[in-house]
Amino acid sequence: MNQSMWHTGGPNAAHIQELAVFFGLLLGTIFVIVVAVALLSIRRRHRGIEQEPLEGSHQPSAGTEHRLRTTVGIASGVTVVILFGLTILSVSVGKAVSASVAPAGNLSVEVTGAQWWWKVRYLNDDPSRVLLTANEIHIPAGRPIAIRGLADDVIHSFWVPGLQGKRDLIPGRITLEWLQADRPGEYRGQCAEFCGLQHAHMAFWIVSESPDQFNKWMDNQLQPSIEPVDDDTKRGQSIFLKSGCVLCHSIRGTDASAQIGPDLTHFGSRKTIAAGTLPNTKGNLAGWIADPQNIKPGTHMATVPIQPAEMQPLIDYLESLK
């Protein structure tokens, strides 16, 4: 799992890492110098008391006063220069990584934060190429990606430490930023703004792939759901369409078309369920459907009454949606 600013995968995260390293080295060096000077002063003062105990007042000479004033003045000036320099450097890096306009040739992805999952929509001038998915963002390596951020309910924060800094998503506002992965890999993202009970379980994945692999993924995701090929998955589809699941979820190619919860058209191809809470396995999916509040207390996922004999066909059907 890659969720660290120290394991950068793109230019914006690299700028943030370089700034952090520079700040750490410079301020660490200043700290060591200050401590060393303080210890040296204490030692000299202690030695002076032992050799020549003070009796009455002892005024420093005019030369000593001048040297002290000069030293303090120089130290104050250097401090001001360093602070101004760090401020300018920090602002310049922040301005670079928070630019709202992506370089040419970008791919536009709309990300909407909701309690507690991520709605992902790939934008395109061709309506037939607009893709809706959830909690997992695939991108081509080496290509800038424009992120259009929104929030459905409360303030969320879109954060991928390995690729980009934090960006708050505020209801009623649209935020714009861009990111890029220099090479194929997987980068875990997280909501970085406390947004309710399950804030900690609001993760997502960015999967960077070669351009050819990304195009294959996109073409597959744009297709309607896979039709059941055996009696078990056919029964599972029937159970899904007759249950309360259709009130919140959609599966393209079927009568399920609700937009409240994540689109499940290609659910079986995703890495996790419940916004990164659990790996996408049949066992975890069964537990999630049977009692979502036990796994993610406070979630808006409804507890749908599924009979024990219906659970396995339903799970087989959902997991077949690759």
Give the arrangement of secondary structure elements.
Blueprint: H1 11-51, H2 62-97, E1 107-114, E2 117-122, E3 131-134, E4 136-140, E5 145-151, E6 156-159, E7 167-169, E8 175-179, E9 185-191, E10 203-209, H3 211-221, H4 231-242, E11 272-273, E12 278-279, H5 282-290, H6 292-295, H7 308-319
Parallel strand pairs: 1-5, 4-10
Antiparallel strand pairs: 1-2, 2-3, 5-8, 6-7, 6-9, 9-10, 11-12
Helix pairs in contact: 1-2, 4-7, 5-7
Explain what you see.
It is a single chain. With 322 residues, this protein is of the alpha+beta class. The chain folds into two domains: 1-51 and 98-220, Immunoglobulin-like, CATH 2.60.40; 231-319, Sandwich (Immunoglobulin-like), CATH 2.60.40. It has seven helices and twelve strands. It has helices at 11-51, 62-97, 211-221, 231-242, 282-290, 292-295, 308-319; strands spanning 107-114, 117-122, 131-134, 136-140, 145-151, 156-159, 167-169, 175-179, 185-191, 203-209, 272-273, 278-279. Strands 3-2-1-5-8 form a five-stranded mixed sheet, with no helix packed on it. A hairpin with a 2-residue loop joins strand 1 and strand 2. Helix 5 crosses helix 7 (308-319). The radius of gyration is 29 Å and the shape is elongated. It starts with 10 loop residues before the first helix and ends with a helix. 28% of the residues are buried. The mean pLDDT is 88.
